[in-house]
Amino acid sequence: MTWGRMLQKRCLLAMAIIAVPSWDSHAALVALVPTFHRARWTTKRPSSCRRRLDSSCWSDDINDNTSGPSAIRSQSPSPTNATALQMVSFYRFFDTATCKETLRDTVFDAFREMVPGIRGTLYIANEGINGQFAVPVNVVDAFVTVCTQHHLVEQTIDDLNWGGVLPIETPTFQKLVVRTRDVILRDGLSNHDSLNWNHAGEELTPAEWDHQLRRQSSQSLRLIDCRNEYETRQGTFQDAIPLNTTTFSESWPVLQQQFATGQHNKEEPVYIYCTGGIRCVKVGAYMTQTLGFTNVKRLKHGIIGYQKWHHQQQETKEQPDVSSLWQGDNFLFDKRRFGGRIN
Ligand SMILES: *[C@@H]1O[C@H](CO)[C@@H](O)[C@H](O)[C@H]1NC(C)=O
Ligand SMILES: *[C@@H]1O[C@H](CO)[C@@H](O)[C@H](O)[C@H]1NC(C)=O
Ligand SMILES: *[C@@H]1O[C@H](CO)[C@@H](O)[C@H](O)[C@H]1NC(C)=O
């Protein structure tokens, strides 16, 4: 098979997988992750709360609401010579309340100036940020630099959830959009404000997750699929308990009913997973803080991360024969390929 043919095949595969469910929106797997320099990293909070006064540099196609707290910064992707787009997504829960608008304006400027051709969306809310982007492969380093400089991800480059690589002409996002909104993940929780999203259980790498699940007997395993019923139907981890919800907001009464009773030992591990990890932050916070579980474990980068890890194990022949604990497809539904908004 020629390189071009192989790339094409991969791209088709990536396109088939790349789709993203409304909120747990993390770009797809597939191994073609580009190499990039490891940028220097710090764990500081965003330092970008600096008002940019020069609005004359907005180009004409930056429209929408250009002032006030609900302003939307957007522009069509600038020209690029790249032939492929790297999909990537990330989220981070932290308090942006005092600097939402300045963060929006600075990050938008940084992306448009330093990452030509970037397209995708970054949401900024009081509770944190959530972004999904298609980045021309020749400017991935610059993208990482912007994410680093503005502390869009917490600690390491590994916090970026790298998806597949698609041909440049693939319809992904129509624009670069950076906007503020009320929440990054709508949850319908009545005690939303009292929960601390940074106290949401332990995050396990896919390798740790795989190792620990294999050690558990299926009788004692408590493994919760935090996604909706239509997602679970497509595929699931062995022995997972589905919540059977149709929207994320329905999760709480189900969790109450299932886990609030006295029959549960709250010190024993509870494993939770979702598509890309963001929903598990909220479920983990609820299980820990509202229901009192002390040993909640979340799968880092969700099913996407697990599938990618498993794929890499097979490729590098580290564990070529070990079957995946995942069974079925990762349900992904992608509005952005059809130009729709993801919300
Ligand atoms: C633009 O922002 C103003 C001030 O925040 C708000 O009142 C108005 O509804 C917004 N318009 C649109 C179209 O979002
Ligand atoms: C694309 O490549 C041409 C020729 O190398 C160069 O002149 C042009 O500036 C490049 N455009 C972009 C957007 O990088
Ligand atoms: C969801 O439905 C399945 C199949 O009917 C059932 O086994 C499971 O217990 C349900 N989950 C919850 C949390 O009730």
Runs with pLDDT <50, length 5+?
1-63, 333-343
CATH class of the largest domain: Alpha Beta
What class would the helix/strand composition place it in?
alpha/beta
Helix content: 25-40%
Order of helices and strands: HEEHEEHEEEHEHEEHEHEHE
Q: Say which CATH homologous superfamily of the largest domain is assigned.
A: Rhodanese-like domain
User: Whole-number radius of gyration?
Assistant: 20 Å
Domain Rhodanese: 217-315
Pfam family, one: UPF0176_N
Signal peptide: 1-27
Organism: Seminavis robusta
Give a short synopsis of this structure:
The protein is an alpha/beta fold and 343 residues long. The protein has helices at residues 3-17, 100-114, 140-149, 206-215, 229-232, 251-259, 278-290, 302-315, and strands at 72-75, 84-93, 119-125, 128-136, 161-167, 176-180, 202-204, 223-225, 235-237, 241-242, 270-273, 296-299, 326-328. The chain has 3 domains: 3-46; 55-180, Alpha-Beta Plaits (2-Layer Sandwich), CATH 3.30.70.100; 192-342, Rhodanese-like domain (Oxidized Rhodanese, domain 1, 3-Layer(aba) Sandwich), CATH 3.40.250.
